[in-house]
Amino acid sequence: MSELISDPGSVPTDPAPGPAAALDIDGVSFGYPGRRVLDRVSLRVRPGELVALVGLNGCGKSTLLRLAAGVLRPEAGRVTVDGADMARLSRRAAARRVALLHQSAPAVPGLTVRQLVRQGRYAARGPLGMLRVGDDAVTVRAMRDVGVEAWADRPVEALSGGERQRVRLALALAQDTPVLLLDEPTTYLDLRHQLEVLRLVARLRAERRLTVLVVLHDLGLAARFAERLVALRDGRVAAEGPPEQVVTPGLLREVFGVEGRVGRDPERGWPVCYPDRPAPIENENGFH
């Protein structure tokens, strides 16, 4: 694997110069029949920034990423990337601006690492371009940057979970977009591979000056790797800001439904959570 940073603090505070873009989500609402998922959500991810979305399952995090990628269209509000309205773009045009890594995807039998990563070039090369034999420079760079170039001819289905996730990250990078959306990239991974993937994302964000919005299930990892946290509750933004300001006992109680304490890592200073017990459930009649 290519060399990773030793810790997120070693990533440059100011990303290297490159093609960065701002992601703006302005008053977005969305719902499915009988259920409102997002209600007037607004947030901005600055060029080259890494922001983590956190909150309980079902609070709208994954839906917000799909809206940001142009896969879904908002009922109200809009999503723009450097001023371009994602809902007004064709699917290919949207895919040239934003790459979305879904939570999971089944391995296609017989597909090699090289063949999967090359699929990320469709938006740029089109159907005729995809018929050309050989990898282009962007595909080669994507595989090299995540350390999977040596596996190029191995079947994806033969890889471990952590290895597959790195290949899927290479697929997203092959789109060569300024904005990268990651939907729980550490799902189903053990602790070692969770750290590998997030350290890799942090390094690539700095090297490529990517604008990154990532959904993370683990609040501790989000606080460690993200510059800013956005906490969703019931389809709305409940808290937003740097981890050291956002991660509080109040956040644990009001957003995650647990009573707990928050400390600080003695070496790096990021927040460390100590959940103690489930918080009382509040309903229209009060607590019970």
TrEMBL record:
Q: Where is the ABC transporter domain?
A: 23-259
Q: Which GO terms describe its molecular function?
A: ATP binding
In the UniProt record, does the keyword Lipid biosynthesis occur?
no
- Keyword rRNA-binding assigned: no
Instruction: Fetch the PROSITE patterns from UniProt.
Output: ABC_TRANSPORTER_1 (PS00211), ABC_TRANSPORTER_2 (PS50893)
Q: Which Pfam families match?
A: ABC_tran
Query: What keywords does the record list, in alphabetical order?
Result: ATP-binding, Nucleotide-binding, Translocase, Transport
InterPro entries according to UniProt: AAA+_ATPase, ABC_transporter-like_ATP-bd, ABC_transporter-like_CS, P-loop_NTPase
Q: Which PANTHER family match?
A: HEMIN IMPORT ATP-BINDING PROTEIN HMUV
- Its recorded name reads ABC transporter ATP-binding protein
Phylogenetic lineage: Bacteria, Bacillati, Actinomycetota, Actinomycetes, Streptosporangiales
